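## retry 2 of 3
previous attempt timed out at serialization; input unchanged, resubmitting
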Amino acid sequence: MESRKTRCSNFVKCVSLDHKHQEDFVTFQCKKVPLLYAVYRSILAAYSIMVVVASGLKSSGPKVFIWFTYWAYYTLTLSFIVRCFTAWLYRLYWTNPNGEYYWKYTPRVLKIQFVLVNIASTVSPVISIIFWLAVYDPETGPTAVSINTHGINVALVLLDTIISRHPVKLIHFFHSVIFCVVYALFTVLYWAVGGTNHKNEPYIYKILDYSGKTDVAIMYVLLVPFVGAPLCHCLIYTIFKLRNAIHYKTCFKEDTDAVQKDHEKEMSGIV
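## retry succeeded, writing output
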C-alpha cells in the first residue's frame, strides 16, 4: 500500500501547475508550427482586445466592472494576451537552432497561463449559459457586444480546446470555483454597502436581488460556483480527452511507443 507521504506527494503533483512537455502550452495539437501558432494567437488576442474596447465605449462607466460578464471576458482576453506572448517567446527565444526546447522546468509565465486558461475556458460557458437563460431580455434583443461576450467567446474557447495542445487537468476545476466564489462574495458585499446597477437598481442582476428575491439569489450564488463551474470544467476536460484520443490515433504515429506512452501519461489530465 502507498504510504501517506507518497499519497500526499501524488496529490501535490496532481494539483501542481508543472507540466513535463511544456511545448504543449504553445503549439497546435497535431503539428508544431510555431510561427503559424503565434500568428493565430495574435489574431485572437487582437480580436478580444477590440471587443473589450468596443464594450468599454458602450458601457455605463466604472459600473462595467460589477458584471460577471466582464470579469469573465477580461480574464479570457488576458489569457489570450499571455498565450500570444508565450507563443512568440517560444518561436523566437525558447528553442535552439535545432528546434529543441530550452527549459527543464515549467516557467512561471506558463503556470500563470495555465491558471488563466483554466478559469477562462470554464467561466466563459458558465456566464454565457446564465446570460441566455436568466438575464437576456428578448424585448431589447442581442447586441454585437452581448453576442461577442456570450457566444463567440464560447466558440473561441471550444476552438482553442480542440486545435491547441494546451493541457487540461480535471482536478484544476477548483480554479474556476474560486473565481466564481470571489465574484459571489463581491456581489454580496456590493449589495451590503448599497451598490446599484447602471439603472440605479439595488442589485447587479435581477437574479441576484438579495433584498427582494433572497432565495433565488442564494440559489444562483451556490449553484454557479459549486455545480455550474465544475460541470463546465468537466465538459472542457472531456473535449480535451477526445482531442488527445484522436491525436494518438492519427498525428502521433511517427513517434515511438515509449514517447507516445510518456506523452499520453503526461496529458492524461491526472498527473
